[in-house]
Design a protein that fits this description.
This protein is of the alpha+beta class. The chain has five helices and five strands. The strands form two sheets. It has a three-stranded mixed β-sheet.
Length: about 110
């Protein structure tokens, strides 16, 4: 937002091109994929590890907030064992980070 109160866009110089800066949703998607700054790990039933971001998880879920900021052992260790398959945990994190659900993999009852 400019001084005059008008919404303006930021452009990034990419070589010879100017491109709009990424949206917050794009940045969050990228952070989930890259694991940059991840400070906790969620582990699935199969033992696969999913690095994640404590603050984002806590903002999106009161259960995860209690888990990572309360007196539970996960707050100290930074590791949470989640009773779910790796595929389910991956879709859960996708939803937490992007607010999107892949309707092709969700079973509706």
């Amino acid at each position: 937002v400019s001084v005059a109160g008008m919404c303006t866009g930021t452009m990034l110089e990419m070589g010879r091109e100017l491109r709009p800066s990424p949206s917050l949703a794009e940045d969050l998607q990228r952070s989930l994929k890259s694991n940059d700054f991840a400070d906790v790990t969620l582990k699935s039933n199969e033992g696969h590890a999913f690095p994640a971001h404590r603050q984002l998880l806590a903002m999106r879920s009161p259960v995860l907030k209690a888990m990572f900021y309360g007196s539970m052992s996960e707050a100290r260790s930074g590791i949470a064992r989640i009773s779910a398959s790796s595929a389910s945990l991956q879709h859960f994190l996708q939803c937490i980070y992007t607010d999107q659900i892949d309707v092709d993999v969700v079973e509706f009852r």
